[in-house]
Design a protein that fits this description.
Number of helices: 3
Shape: globular
CATH superfamily: Quinoprotein alcohol dehydrogenase-like superfamily
Helix content: under 10%
Structural class: mainly beta
Largest sheet: 5 strands, mixed
CATH topology: Methanol Dehydrogenase, Chain A
CATH architecture: 8 Propeller
Strand order of the largest sheet: 1-26-27-28-29
Mean pLDDT: 87
CATH class: Mainly Beta
Oligomer: single chain
Length: 529
Amino acid sequence: MIGRGNQLARRAVTMALCLAAAACGGDDSSPAPPASGTAPSATPTPSPSPTASSATSSLAPRNPFLAASNWPIFHANTYSTASSSTGPGAVEEAQVVGALTQPLAPAYVSPWTVFGPRYADGSQPVITTPNNGVAKYLVTQAGLQPVDFLPLERDVADFDWALLVRANGEAVVTEKRGNNIVLVGDAQPGDPRSPLAVKRRISVDPAVHGRLLAHHSLAFDGTLIVLTDANRLIAVDLDAGRVIAGFDLPSDSGASFQNSFPIDETGRIFVAAQNLAVAVDWTGTGFRLGWTAPYDMRGPGCENVPPDRSREEEARAVALGLPCTGTGTTPTLLGSPESGIFVIVDGHQPQNNLVAFWRGEPPADWTPLPDPVRPGRFLDRRVAGVFALPYSTPDGEGFTAQNSPAAFGNAVVIAQWAGFSPDATPPTGVQRVDWLPGQRRLSLVWANPSILFNGVPTIACRSGTCAVYGMGRYGDRYAYTSLDLATGAETGRINLGASDDVLDQGNNHAIADDGSIIYAGRRALVRVR
């Protein structure tokens, strides 16, 4: 175990910002981030945090076809909120175990982590997808325990991140080499110590549908929805073992769809490209276009970047921290299908924006917002807000956000991303922005300039208090930190040591049913309590 640090002495200074008149229609203005170490001048009144007693109403609806666990899919649920009604409270200790992977495999980008349903003895399986297979661990009363690694037909350079666990306990993953959807489960069902086995391979014809990307999700009727490199959505019947429908996303303007996507209870799927957002409806038998809304995710100064830049060129630009990489975040859903929004982070300079779109039809009296970077022009009517984030920038040592927003009720938390290999002085900053439905605008609640969460923030509640969790680098050490959701103040910090085995390179931190947090580093799995 790794002991708790002196968190009181290291409590972050919560950024103080006065909220003035709206800068862009439905949003409060946001000043540029202060220089490193500079304290802000004024303190906004914190909005109340959702409490544990109200946590259920603040969560996304549960998909009955996903495993009955706290975190059966990336970002916790098909709304992609990365939030839970249970958690560890202020963090105090961590356990680090070596990652299960194929011998002699190179270091890999930290994979996604999800949970299956608990076994009869109370233990809970943890499933991850390192580049070359699927790994299983157990959360038990004795701690985190490795169980099995199942090699798959993958190249070690492939990022087969897509991962979810179905209600029957089977994990759904991909094999890019063969363009297969793979169902993986226990060789001896019900046995916590059972090794893993391939239950089924579903071949996807690349000539018809394109090649699989690292993105899939589960509709509320149990259908797997998958994104391919042909800018195409496909629907896969996992029980029948075949593709049952396909849909070509709008791409005539050079749009390139690369991110993962949420699905709501009506079957509406939300995807974002570098120049537009799209809603597509899954009807149970086929797809139909819901709406499209143009929005320049790259921002001004990127006019010379080809709109149809290849995925390989885009990935290289992201890894190098170059500007003009557009959005790298999964949309996050808030509110109801009829009146709610989804939020995403764009790639504008010098500050990334939190951008909101209406999920359903915009309110009848809603008028288009002024374009904040093109005076005299207006945004599409479906854009509900654009908010310049104090601490999310591609400038300097910064990177365009790849770690998606987390949400709990109408509270949204966004963190600065510092890339796949942060140095000793990485860019820092975490902020909370609330959607105010009655006022139909985004509003800054707090911003903490001192903290690095290099992955998707996780939000959870315990004993009436909600917190935000993540890890980052500080000098030559890595640390895990919890922040008060209401104020942004640091409540706990754990020293994780100097090895980059524990580095989170941009994924999510999943919460087990017992409230502990599990995340995958480069070569380790870490449990935080």
